Amino acid sequence: MSVYDIGISSLAGDADELGRHRGRPALIVNVASQCGLTPQYAGLVRLAERYPELTIVGVPCNQFGGQEPGSPAEIAEFGSSNYGVTFPLTEKVEVNGAGRHPLYGALVDTPDAEGHTGDIRWNFEKFLVDGDGKVVARFAPPVEPEDPQVVAAIERVLAD
After folding, report:
1. Beta-carbon neighbour count of residue 34 at 10 Å?
2. In whole angstroms, what is the distance from residue 120 CA to residue 97 CA?
3. Starting at the edge strand that comes first in sequence, how are the strands of the sheet with 26-31 ordered?
4. Residue 117 included in any domain
5. What gap in Å lies between CA 81 and CA 86, rounded to an integer?
6. Strand-strand pairing, 55-60 and 26-31
7. Any domain includes 46
8. What phi, psi does 27 have (nearest 5°)?
9. By the 8 A CB rule, do 21 and 103 touch?
10. Range of the domain at 29
11. Do 58 and 87 contact (CB within 8 A), yes or no?
12. What is the tens place of the pLDDT at every residue in 89-137?
């Protein structure tokens, strides 16, 4: 199954946010506005500028310390005004537990470099997906978006 087949709305409420990016590699990241890792938004913006053929998808989540409490309008305004976010943001979802969104159900079995699978550990966990919607890499929350291992994985996917 392709992650592009999983329904998730945009932050503005438009249906099928992922499906509209089908055929393009994507970096899917659970984001939060009030987290110590929130400055990673800046690196995500730079990746989006550096690799226009890659879609960055931010997935707001409030499950980690209540660090994404805002409304959709507040989340969009925060990203735009503080970091210049223009990449797509989805509706706010749960990434762990009984209410886990099906998107994260499809993502969490992929191991990161240390072999971690399963629950999302914190905000800014990253998943790289190829144009067919297959998960090809997972990066732990503290791994910066522009870390050489992330960039190398993106460039491999883009070269395929």
Report:
1. 14
2. 10
3. 55-60, 26-31, 126-129, 135-139
4. yes
5. 10
6. parallel
7. yes
8. -110, 115
9. no
10. 3-155
11. yes
12. 999 999 999 999 999 999 999 999 999 999 999 999 999 999 999 999 9
Helices and strands (H and E) in the chain: how many: 4, 4
CATH number for position 34:
3.40.30.10
What are the residue ranges of helices labelled H in the chain?
40-50, 72-83, 102-107, 148-159
Active-site residue, from 29, 35, 59, 150: 35
Query: Which residue is it, tokens 């939060």?
Result: 32
160 is a domain residue: no
What's the token pair of residue 135?
């998960």
Q: How far apart are CA 47 and CA 87, in angstroms?
A: 10
61 catalytically annotated: no
Which tokens in the block code for residue 26? Answer: 């994507």
pLDDT in tens, 10-69: 999 999 999 999 999 999 999 999 999 999 999 999 999 999 999 999 999 999 999 999
Does 119 map to a domain?
yes
| Count of structural domains within the chain | 1
The residues, any chain, with a CB within 8 Å of residue 13's CB and separated by 6 or more, are 72, 91
